[in-house]
Each structure stands twice: as structure tokens, then as C-alpha cells.
Amino acid sequence: SKICVVRTVDLEDRARRPRVAGHLILRRRTRRTWCAARVLVALSVAVSECCYFLFNLFKTAFASSSSREAMAQSNSSDGFLSQPKGFSTKAIHVGQDPEQWNSMAVVPPISMSTTFKQHGPGQHAGFEYGRSGNPTRDVLERCIASLDNGRFGLTFSSGLGATTTIITMLQNGDHIVAGDDLYGGTNRLLRNVALKMGIEVDFVDLTNMQLVEQAIKPNTRLFWMETPTNPLLKVVDIRAVSEIAHKHPGIVVVVDNTFLSSYLQRPLDLGADVVMYSLTKYMNGHSDVIMGAMVTNDEAVYERLKYLQNAAGIVPSPFDCYLVNRSLKTLALRMERHKSNSLAIARFLETHPKVERVLHPGLPSHPQHELAKRQTYGHSGIMSFYIRGGLEESSNFLKALHVFTLAESLGGYESLAELPSVMTHASVPLQQRQELGITDGLVRLSVGLEDVDDLIADLKQALDKA
Ligand SMILES: *Cc1c(COP(=O)(O)O)cnc(C)c1O
Ligand SMILES: *[C@@H]1O[C@H](CO)[C@@H](O)[C@H](O)[C@H]1NC(C)=O
Ligand SMILES: *[C@@H]1O[C@H](CO)[C@@H](O)[C@H](O)[C@H]1NC(C)=O
Question: Positions modified as N6-(pyridoxal phosphate)lysine (predicted)?
Fold first, then answer.
């Protein structure tokens, strides 16, 4: 049942292997060499224990120095935090040891089997039934956890499936403090579903620490935040909000990290308890899988969510797990390109006469540019801008695009553009939209991986027609 624990077993097994081999050789020895062999074994056990101890010592020292490195406020050339070493290596190797499969397959097999043979009643080899655990899912969950410097990972059939499971941890009478600028589906789930379960929800501007403090009630159990927000790119100070929430025992702080991915922001390092993902977006990045995930270091929260993952049955298919696992290998490469493409586009738009204002946390004009540099490793391909005029101008612009596709969603390799007031955020009540600044002139872009010159040329010709 310990299916998704991020184990260091792979390495430990290697350290132990010589001992096992030693025992096998021992059996073949004659009685005359028995004594000498025992001495040899004792010695080799002592040596391997010693190596194992030193290895662990080294590992601990390395882990703490790398977490220190992660905490250090070092700056890269663009002013954002600079990446500690090893992200891509983890993305390519964690959970992937070929020696865990009898076939030694380097790309692990997709295990479609829904059931697993047992040695005897109740004696299984780690897997019983596909809903409660599957080898392909296991590999992915371990890999995702490691990318967030987390111990435990779980995947779900969609991002909202992950959110539903997290909310199911609560009960009638509990209270949630949520950000006021959330993904539409999360907003709908909290307003229309959680409320019906007798859970209270307050939507709060989490960039205002005084409001955050005031929002906490004796029955508050969960903080739900997104940063940067959608579509206004407001940045929430994860460390500050977590500190306020954690003054009250029993509050779990969740960060929906979909917009940046584990490559550009690692909320557990900043004090959050749980990271949630719509893997559908950047983590998979190829616009061909709907899936969600959560990562935590808190064993009690993990056990509860693992129980609910199985009990509620919101699990992904092994084939989709395989696809996301494959996509993670290029996460770092993709995010670097999303980052540089979107910043170049933001700079271009900022100088264009038909553009009123650009919202991109990487621009010095963004009100929380300094905070973004302090808590992230850069910004992804999501950005918004206000076109001068209203619905007519924005519609003309969107219809004139050739390389950008007019569509909802985000985080794929392809560039998308959309109008939140009419498309993704149409369900937000008009008054709330106006208060937030979601006007008919606000265009959201998900900048993809194409050649940036082609993207800029496309925006330029479409702006001419706006
Ligand atoms: C898409 C999205 C979700 C929901 O994820 P699904 O995989 O579509 O269920 C949640 N949060 C954010 C920020 C998203 O962009
Ligand atoms: C990072 O940049 C800030 C200002 O942007 C500066 O004050 C600080 O000293 C820099 N830190 C490092 C480690 O270079
Ligand atoms: C995921 O993909 C990589 C190859 O890019 C491989 O190392 C890994 O084992 C794969 N895992 C699964 C479950 O397919």
C-alpha cells in the first residue's frame, strides 16, 4: 500500500546488493573455509554498513546544502531566483530505475492490468487493484513529487479531480479561505459544490495581508491560492500567506501551481503544505492529456488524500500517466522557451501604440515584479494585455491571428489567444469581472514554443487590423 512514497530505495538497494551476493557465494563454500568465510562476510558487512552510513551522511549533507541553495536568494541574470542544480536529471530519472522491471526496460512498460496476482491471500507484490495503485502511475507520482522537493505525490483524473479530493478532506461546518481571482472551474466547485456540502468559503484578495489575517475563523481548515492568478497575473506572497495561516494549527495551505509548473515555482520550499496541479497544462504541455496531481511533505495529509484517491476513485489511466511522464522529460526545456518567448512578446507589446497595458510578472512595470523575482525562477508563457478600445477591437485582433490559435486552455507547445470576458471567465458575474478588471479589452495569451519572431510578426499584423 506504500505505493507513492518517494523512496530512496533504488540507491539503497545498490548499497545493499553486495551483501546479498556475498551470502549466495557463501552457500557454495565448503566447511573448511566456513570460518574464513564468516570472517570475510562479517568484514564485508561491516564495510558495506560503513559505506552505507557514509553514503547516507553524504546524502543528508547534500540534501541540506541543496535545500539551503534553494532557499538562498541568489539572482540569475534576469533577476529571478537561479535554479539549483539537478532539476532535469530528476525529471528524467526519478522513479525510472530500469532494474525495478524484470525486463529492465529503460522506458517502463505501460501496465494496463486492472488486477495483480497475489502470492497468497493478502500477500501481494505492492499492487492489488488498478484504482488503488498501478505501476505506471506509481512511476509518475514519484517523479512529480521529486520535482517539487516533496516526499509524496498523487495523481488524479483531472486538475479539478485533485481539487475535489482535497476538498473532500473537509467536512460540514469547515471554512475555506480562497483567493478572489481563481481558475473558473475552481471557483465553480467552491461556490456550487463545496457550499452545498455545508462548507463555508470566503474569497479574499490574498495580496493584502491584513485581509488574509482577518479572513481566518476558528473553523478555517484550508487556504486555497493560485499565483500568478488567472487572467490578471496577480502574484501572491506564498511565504507570507503560509506564515499567517500556520499561526493557527490545523490549517492546510494549498497552492495551485498550474501556471508556473514545478520548474518555475516550488511552493513547498516556500512554506505551503500541498501543491496542486492541473497537469493538463504546462506539466504535460502537449495539450493531449487531462490530469491532475498533488504533492506534499505532510505524511498525515498524504495518507488522507491517498485514502480518498482510492475511496472516491478519481484516478487517471495508465496510458495518460505514461504520456505525462514522457512530457516531464522536456519540462525544463519547454519552460525556458515559454519564459523567453513570453518576455520578448511582453516587451514588444509594451511598446505598441494599440496596447494600453501589459500584465507580465517579468516586466518591471508589473506591480509585484520584485516579489515574482524573489519567489519564482521566472515566468511562464501566460500573460495578458489590454488592447485600446473594447469588444470590437479585441475581436478584430483575435480573428486576424494566424500563428496564435483562438482557443481556451493554456500551457501547451502551441500559442493560444483568448478573450476572458467572453470565453474562460464568462461565468464570473459581470460586477465581479468589472471589479477585477476583466474587461472586453483584456486579451490573454498562452505563448507557446514557436519561433518568437513569427509570434511577434503575427501579433503585429493582427494589431494593425484591430
Ligand atoms: C485548468 C486549470 C485547472 C483545472 O484543471 P483540469 O485539468 O482542467 O481539471 C485548475 N487550475 C488552473 C490554474 C487551471 O489552469
Ligand atoms: C539580487 O538582486 C538584488 C536587487 O535586485 C540585490 O539587492 C541582491 O544583492 C542580489 N543578490 C545576489 C545574491 O546577487
Ligand atoms: C517516462 O519517460 C522516460 C523516457 O523519456 C523514461 O525514462 C521513463 O521510464 C518513462 N516512464 C514511464 C512510466 O513511461
Answer: 281
